[in-house]
Amino acid sequence: MQRLLFALLLVSTHTIAQQKMVVTTTSQLTNANVYYGYGAELTHKAKANVVAGQQEIVINNISTTIDQNTLQIAAPENVVLLSYRYNLKTEIVATAPNPLYKKMEDSIKVIQKQIGSNLQEWQLNEEQLNKTSKIIDSYSANPNKTITTAEVLKLIDYYNGKIQLYRTIMYALKLKRDELEIQKKEIADRLTELQNKDENQVQKPIGQIILEVLTKENTAADFSII
User: Fold this and answer.
1) Residues 115-142: pLDDT tens digits?
2) What are the residue boundaries of the structural domains of the chain, listed by start?
3) H or E element: which one contains 191?
4) N or C: which end of the chain has fewer CB within 10 A?
5) Residue 30 — φ and ψ, nearest 5°?
6) What is the pTM for the complete model shown?
7) Secondary structure class of 11 (helix, strand, coil)
């Protein structure tokens, strides 16, 4: 007898679990009557595929400023409306990307390319500077070269001039690169600031009607909310 009761309890629990389910759908605003000084009457329509048994239907996209005392809900004849309640929730809504973001990101990429070209030019001048310095060292350290002292001094002066030119170019490149780095950081910081502000604005209140219904057969049901 105890085994039979336990088996019946399992069957009953399984049947209830099968009968009770949640269906989510989205309503469409189909009509709006505005009464000046009194507000507006909004009509929403929603479709839901319900199955035989008892279930909960969550209808989204309902007005967030609804008067629950005047709420009217119409269901098909073959669907019994057991109860309903209104709910207001906050939902994270994806927003369209700000076109300013792409412009700022493109500006950062352009500046980064300029920094790369600047650094490459700086390295080439550094390489020429090192080669020129070695040439001077070789003339100064080798007295056996078959050129006169005057010629050596003339060559050293020439290469010293080249060294000074390279250093001047490298200094100007370094200043320009530092300036570009500052520009890039300012744009990147501004971009981050704008994105953080947008992230705080993507929450949107959503109105919901939650219906408790019962039906004997599977059906595509149309609901009206006024």
Assistant:
1) 999 999 998 888 888 888 887 777 666 6
2) 20-94+203-225, 99-199
3) helix 149-199
4) N
5) -110, -20
6) 0.47
7) helix
